[in-house]
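> example.struct
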C-alpha cells in the first residue's frame, strides 16, 4: 500500500494485490461509485482495459440498486460521496 499526501489537502492511496491468473479466470463484475465524472470515467476505462466488466453510478442510492442488479465481486466506492 502506498500513501501519498496531496498539496492542498487530501491523500492518494494505492493498493496493489497480487493476482494468480487473469481477470478472465474469475468473476469480473466491478461496481464503481463516484460522483466526479472525470474520476469515474478514468476508473471505468482502466478497469475495462484490464478485462473487467464494469458497472458505474454516481450516487449512493443508485449504488444500492446497482448492487442488487449486478451483484459485483468488487465495489470501488468514493468514501466522500455526498448525500
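> example.seq
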Amino acid at each position: 500500500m502506498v500513501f501519498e499526501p496531496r498539496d492542498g489537502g487530501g491523500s492518494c492511496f494505492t493498493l496493489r494485490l497480487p493476482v494468480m491468473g487473469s481477470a478472465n479466470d474469475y468473476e469480473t463484475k466491478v461496481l464503481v461509485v463516484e460522483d466526479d465524472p472525470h474520476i469515474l470515467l478514468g476508473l471505468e476505462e482502466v478497469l475495462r482495459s484490464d478485462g473487467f466488466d464494469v458497472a458505474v453510478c454516481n450516487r449512493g442510492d443508485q449504488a444500492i440498486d446497482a448492487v442488487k442488479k449486478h451483484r459485483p465481486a468488487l465495489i470501488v466506492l468514493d468514501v466522500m460521496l455526498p448525500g
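> remarks
The beta strands are 2-5, 11-14, 29-33, 53-57, 74-77.
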